[in-house]
Amino acid sequence: MSSRGDGLRxxxxxxxxxxxxxxxxxxxxxxxxxxxxxxLALLVFAIRARPGEAAVAGFTVGLMVDSLTPVAFGAxxxxxxxxxxxxxxxxxxxxxxxxxxxAGFFFVGTxxxxxxxxxxxxxxxxxxxxxxxxxxxxxxxxxxALVGVVVLVVFRRWLRIRIxx
Amino acid sequence: xxxxxxxxxxxxxTLAFIICLLLSVSARVAPPPVQDSLARAISSTVLAxxxxxxxxxxxxxxxxxxxxxxxxxxxxxxxTAFTARALEEENxxxxxxxxxxxxxxMEHVSAEVLHQAAPTTGLMVVLAAGRQDGVVPRAPxxxxxxxxxxxxxxxxxxxxxxIWTHPDFRVSAMTLDGSVFGIVAPRGAEGPNTPLLELxxxxxxxxxxxxxxxxxxxxxxxxxxxxxxxxxxxILAVAExxxxxxxxxxxxxxxxPAAVSHVVVLTGPGxxxxxxxxxxxx
Lengths: 165, 282
Description:
The structure holds two protein chains of two kinds.
Chain A: H1 3-23, H2 37-48, H3 51-68, H4 75-93, H5 99-121, H6 126-154
Chain B: H1 11-29, H2 32-44, H3 48-74, H4 81-103, E1 108-114, E2 124-127, E3 140-143, E4 146-154, E5 159-163, E6 171-175, E7 181-189, E8 195-203, E9 213-216, E10 231-242, E11 246-253, E12 262-266, H5 274-277
Antiparallel strand pairs in B: 1-2, 1-12, 2-5, 3-4, 3-12, 4-5, 6-7, 6-9, 7-8, 8-11, 9-10, 10-11
Helix pairs in contact in B: 3-4
């Protein structure tokens, strides 16, 4: 497979996740626990990209998220930049092809994003923030991780990812 | 696990990361008007097609719900009990909204709520109605149960509403008969699904009983934000007492933002809305 073909396939998967994020949102139930496919697209990109590229992608995704819920504009950009960079760096240092490790990678990435958004935004009172971080965010991280595993399994050839048990 | 030193962060990666961080911090500390302009610009250009997709999906979900309910009424055996219950709930919400819409004595616009995935989406939501529909900043947003929030910014086809859970949210409130007044603000959460409000500044001699309904007072007249008579919630208990001076009460909100999929944005001059909600009184 050519490098250009690989790139196009990766873009196609990322675009699909972005469109599904908006198209499926009304059908996914409570928004606090539903998977975040936009963040998942960033994490999938981070698996394949260099840390700098992932940071730029994170910044872009973060700005979009901030524009949709401008509670603390810039907090989303900051959080996604950090998560994108750390995800790409982490995958480079501890590269794993194990499905469970990848699920953990998606889980931690999602939870860390929520933590950074809430800390950088400082717009929630303590009790609400605790419930968000230790109740809703883990559920969201879990659903995102589950969808992430499905995406990796379904698109493993397109994403050029080898999965072991 | 295998070690891949060739993909470690290089100086170029670090530089890109630092630049993105600096840009993020700049966006975070930028003046609110600049932040609003940026958010509006992005949501009305790059995100516009995605929001359109979400709006259509929301319409499909609502239409599908209504259609399936008709099918269910003709042949209940075809729909499982679980699906039927979910669709009935959806249909009930739409019926409530339509009924409220018919009762409202002032100009208004119906809009779908486009919930997002960010952890902050419980504080602000995107509405699928914008300037073209007559929505303006500071327009009150209500749901069938009562007050939901206020429009903060508007683009041509969408708007962003600040919900009552936002720490900056304040509304002047009163009892149904207008004998007791106070200020309502968010008050944290009692559990993962129970955000609360508080009514503060109630004179010490005015004692409110649990279950008392609280409405917007309409103070500020025609130039105020909220018209008189929109339900806010009901008194749960006394939260704090400033001996001999005032009391603060815990209020159970009338509207839970996570359960709302359709809202009404009030666009006309404010009038007393108590009658529009009176059928929902216990």
